[in-house]
């Protein structure tokens, strides 16, 4: 199990605990916890509707892929803390992380 804190678009924060043994992405996990994430492309790094910004723990994550970099470059509000939740595997590297959901709802 891994624990991390999610800040929703309305500013509300919640600590979540999720299993790491199912091979899920952070996007899939957030959807399972009923966060409103479009995930239009189904996790292929093609739509950026699962955009998140890390306040804590980003340095523990795997490097961004070229596809993730390309998609983040299209977002006007992306910065150094931006990631696509579909490209992050739920594992021990997320322990103690804090991030805000930013992706579009349209």
Write up what this structure looks like.
By secondary structure, the chain is α+β, with helices and mostly antiparallel strands. It has one domain: Beta-grasp domain (Ubiquitin-like (UB roll), Roll). The chain is 13% helix and 24% strand. It has 2 helices and 5 strands; from the N terminus they run E-E-H-E-H-E-E. A 5-stranded mixed sheet has the order 2-1-5-3-4, with no helix packed on it. Strand 1 (2-7) and strand 2 form a beta hairpin. The radius of gyration is 12 Å and the shape is globular. The mean pLDDT is 95.
Outline the low-pLDDT stretches.
none
CATH class bucket: Alpha Beta
The strand count comes to: 5
What's the helical proportion of residues?
A: 10-25%
**Mean pLDDT reading:** 95
Task: Spell the H/E element sequence.
Answer: EEHEHEE
The number of domains: 1
Strands side by side in the biggest sheet: 2-1-5-3-4
CATH fold descriptor: Ubiquitin-like (UB roll)
How many helices? 2
Structural class determined from secondary elements: alpha+beta
What is the straight-line distance between the termini?
Answer: 32 Å
